Amino acid sequence: MTDPQPPSRLLGVDTGGTFTDLVLLDGSAVRTYKLPSTPDDPSRAVLEGVRHLLGEDQGLVFHGSTVATNALLEGKGAKVTLVTTAGFGDLLQIGRQNRAQLYALQPAGRTSLVPAERVVEVRERVLADGAVEVPLGEAEVERVVTAVKATGCESVALCLLHAYANPKHEAQLAQALLAAGCRVSASHRVLPEYREFERASTTAVNAAVSPVMSRYLERLQVGLGERPLRIMQSNGGAIMAGTAGSEAVRTILSGPAGGMVGAFAAARAAGLERIITFDMGGTSTDVGLCDGRIPLTSETVIADWPVKVPMIDIHTVGAGGGSIARLDAGGALRVGPESAGAAPGPVCYGRGDRVTVTDANLYLGRLRPDRFLGGRMPLAVDRCRQALEELATAAGLAPQRLAEGIIEVAEETMAGALRVVSVARGFDPRDFTLLPFGGAGGLHACALAEMLAMERILIPAHPGLLSAVGLVRADVIRDYSRSVLRPGNVAQMELAELFRPLEQQAVAEMGAEGIAGAALQLEPSLDMRYRGQSFEITVPMAGDFCRTFHQRYQGLYGYRDEQRDLEIVTLRLRAVGRGPRPDLQHGLCRASDLSPLVVEPLVVAGHERPCPVYQRSALPCGASFSGPALIVEETATHLITPGWLVRVDEGSNLLLEREGA
């Protein structure tokens, strides 16, 4: 199936734990909408937002979803049966020798993705070179199908030993199971790479979340009618909803990936390519570092399970606007990771009763109660004040000091996350620009930049909706891989022949996505290592890739050994169909006088002082002013602390620089 003539309207919808964000591009016009999420059924908020922006009109919908993530984290995935080679039934339970609690005498066990009673072993054996040692007979296939049906599973994870080298037995079993009415995730399709545990884990995760995702997408598609639907993957590319339903493991970090795509696009448009992204929403904070490109990783662990498909490298911590403040048993102040979410939400939303970071910001005057969500959601100031003062009494602190303490604790957590993606990986944050987004990112950007000695901040257009912006800018991307375990000096002709099946698969499947001919770009790369090592580095397959490997290795570890033999472990191919490049800043730059809406008291650095409040949409291009100041817009609020100079550039971005730097 391919999309018909591409619709002129592009709608990005990102579902978060607290709010659902929408951006509609209709020609050169941009419309936005933000509404509370509906955690019991995320599609309700999505469809309400679509009706608000599109009405009965057609449009191409891009969606970033947390459905697969939540199903895995909450243990609400489908009932899965694992089918594996005889003797390897304990594969998921044993895992690797790595232990999270190294010195615990009774370490907590890994959560059970597939219990022992739902493991079916197959009498067959394929060797590492693809040779068949024990054939798979028809009688054995029938026995396995009968055993699988007896488990009463919803989904089957099929992972036979060395199926990446020879998938014949897996394909034979998959065909029989499908014919028997089973839903099958086969490892040679999900992840045709060596390392049995990671391959089995990724396949089992896909089997667990795909039925949940498929049901959600089917329900959503009914509500959307004839509007085509694309889903954001964790790798930063979009795919058709049908593909996402069967390969849901590729959507685990769907929403945060959209944010990174939107942030990097905004930075490039402003002439910046070295950025640290800071996405603070209601439930969590996602951070990442882009050094000229969006970083990818295939070593992600979700809910203690390796998920080895390519994902944008994002680090997440449980610190968001809805993070709950509490006193522990010793009376110390703790903030998060528990969140008030969308229901009941922070106290100031009118239903919650536990103080959050958002409540602390409101108490200190950093949120305008009459302009939250453009005035569509007035905040309950008195309710917030009462709850915070009660917590302050229990803590033995002045209410203002408690509110500041809540924010300081949350900012320490977020600063730690920023250090994980920068300092801990050998990058100096001072060489990068901080790019905050999400509804609460701008409230904490200046403090975090100062904590990391950063001197520049870029706040793009539509920061509270940047994940949704990234969705409408997303390319169509599919990633393919194949483990080959060849020497680094393999002949170019042999390497080209090894890539050929991946290229043929990419052309066929991208054609089904409506991408073909000159619109399709194929980007090959290689996972390489020094012979004898256990882990690899990915390098582009262009020019002298061995030299490139040595250079990247030295950049990561500080040395190289050009006399040592290299090994090509896995071939990778990225198929890209370039997405739309809309101008989302069209008409945002105004020519007017710089004047605040109002001047009101604001608590900054422990002192209450008069502070101008500016409406962002009224800021003229070229305007500049110094903090302290508050900048409000429909989907976000930005706190400019003393010592920072704000300049509005020609793209209507807010560029903040340290005064005197």
Tell me what the structure shows.
The structure is a single chain. The chain is of the alpha+beta class and 661 residues long. Among the domains are: 105 residues, ATPase, nucleotide binding domain (Nucleotidyltransferase, domain 5, 2-Layer Sandwich); 132 residues, no CATH class; 103 residues, Dna Ligase, domain 1; 61 residues, no CATH class. Helix content is 30%, strand content 28%. The chain contains 16 helices and 34 strands. A hairpin with a 2-residue loop joins β16 and β17. α9 packs across α14 and α10 packs across α12. The chain is globular, with a radius of gyration of 26 Å. The relative contact order is 0.11. The N terminus is likely disordered.
**What is the CA-based Rg, rounded?**
26 Å
Strand order of the largest sheet: 3-2-1-4-11-12-24-27-25-26
Beta fraction? 25-35%
Query: Oligomeric state of the chains?
Result: single chain
Uncertain segments:
1-5
The main pleated sheet reads as:
10 strands, mixed
Rounded mean pLDDT score: 90
The secondary-structure class comes to alpha+beta
Give the % helix: 25-40%
The span between the termini is: 55 Å
Shape: globular
Number of strands: 34
Number of helices: 16
